[in-house]
Specification:
The chain has a five-stranded mixed sheet with strand order 1-2-7-5-6. The chain is α+β, with helices and mostly antiparallel strands.
Length: 154
């Protein structure tokens, strides 16, 4: 990609929020030996939690994808807080996506595609990653989705 990550975000109409502080006794990110570990991010918007409720119940797959997309935006916000410059991102290495779902819901990968698609749209090949998409009986604050990340950095 010849354009910068910041210019790509602007082109996509995405403004990164301030990185959210931790909600408990943990750090929001940890930079260690060329890797940035970002703690689980919830779909927090300007007015707080934007997506609550279970997929397969109160929430549709498309709403889950929007929640996952918002989690990815919040991961980028944490990366910017940690690195100062998003151009230091070499590769999104791994995402783990947790989907708050009813027992019969089985479309977790489609939900987490909301995050995967955002990373590829913003970062190109640097956004391609390994991942897991798993169902959960509940998530903090009844969030619909939570995603953490491992990012290779300069």
């Amino acid at each position: 990609m010849s354009e910068t990550i910041e210019s790509r975000l602007k082109e996509l109409g995405i403004e990164l929020p301030n990185a959210a502080p931790p909600a408990a006794n943990y750090v929001p990110y940890l930079l260690l030996e060329g890797q940035l570990f970002v703690s689980g991010q919830l779909p927090m918007g300007a007015d707080g939690l934007a997506f609550a409720g279970k997929l397969g119940g109160a929430k549709s797959v498309s709403e889950g994808q929007e929640a996952a997309r918002l989690c990815a935006i919040n991961i980028l916000a944490q990366a910017k807080a940690a690195l100062g410059n998003l151009e230091r991102i070499k590769q999104i290495v791994r995402l783990t996506g947790f989907v708050n779902a009813t027992p019969e819901f089985d479309d977790h990968p489609a939900v987490i595609n909301g995050a995967s698609d955002l990373f590829v749209s913003v970062l190109g090949e640097r956004g391609r990653h390994t991942r897991a998409a798993v169902g959960s009986a509940s998530l903090p604050f009844d969030a619909s989705v939570e995603i953490d990340a491992i990012i290779a950095v300069d």
